[in-house]
Amino acid sequence: MIKHYPFNQLGKANHGWLKANFHFSFAHYYNPKRMGFGVLRVVNDDAINANTGFPAHPHNNMEIITIVRSGAIHHQDSEGNKGITHAGEVQVMSAGSGIVHSEYNRTKDPLTLYQIWIQPNKQNVTPRWDSKLFPTTYVTNTLPLLVSGYKEDKDSALFIHQEARIFGGKLKQGTKLTHKITHQAYILASKGSFELTNSGHLTVMLKGDGAEVTQTKEVTITATSNCEIVIIDAPN
User: Fold this and answer.
1) Shortest CA distance to 59 belongs to which of 131, 132, 118, 121?
2) For the sheet containing 176-180, what is the strand order?
3) Is the dihedral of CA 231, 129, 134, 163 positive or negative?
């Protein structure tokens, strides 16, 4: 089953320096029907102006993933971690027993990103932060694995404390592939457009859209333009 959430139906916030689009309830946006998708709690599609950002603030017991789509984000936290994550890179932070962090766009260019929160399967772990650059070339048969909580993926993906996987990559127009699903998937159209097909049902995805894919072990993706896709496969 595929349930489509068009971009214009997402929650919205415009703070001047920050324009945010909420796939699930977050901050002042509350929708009782959109409180998460299994252990996936937050997907925010953010645009952050130059020389602005999120000042230091605390988190605990959450896996926080940032996929940078354009620009660069500067990270600093109470564990002493500092780093710059550029477009094509992903950063993860296990808030665990408690961490304070700031995230800023210290460049002259706009920053766009996905902020993803996943509930962990272990509580009060030691806080940690990591980042990694992934290939930005177009793929033809498999979306790259970006984030995983499975031991067998530790050498290729960023680690989180949850039996979940996040895939992401670029497809050229006309590319068609079948993606396997372990649990249930939330699919994001980061750029361009593509079609999702399952059991004869076709859903057209445009930039900014989201879709829940449930009760199936695979979905077929057909790129109707050059596009970029993110797939979050996480337990219910």
Assistant:
1) 118
2) 176-180, 218-223, 194-198, 201-205
3) negative
Provide the pLDDT for residue 77: 97
For residues 5 and 210, the answer to whether their CB atoms sit within 8 Å is yes
Domain ranges of the chain: 2-134
Integer Cα distance of 168 and 72 in angstroms: 18
DSSP 8-state assignment for residue 29 = B
- Beta bridge partners, 234, equal 184
What's the CATH code, domain 2-134? Answer: 2.60.120.10
Q: How far apart are CA 189 and CA 120, in angstroms?
A: 25
Q: pTM, whole model, 2 decimals?
A: 0.97
Residue 77 CA: distances (Å) to CA of 28, 36, 59, 100, 127: 25, 26, 11, 5, 10
In the block, residue with structure tokens 């997907």: 43
Residue 236 pLDDT > 90: yes
Residues 41-75 as b/e (b if ≥16 CB within 10 A, e otherwise) read bbbbbbbbeeeebbeeeebebbbbbbbbbebbbbb
- For the four alpha carbons of 2, 20, 165 and 59, in that order, the dihedral sign comes to negative
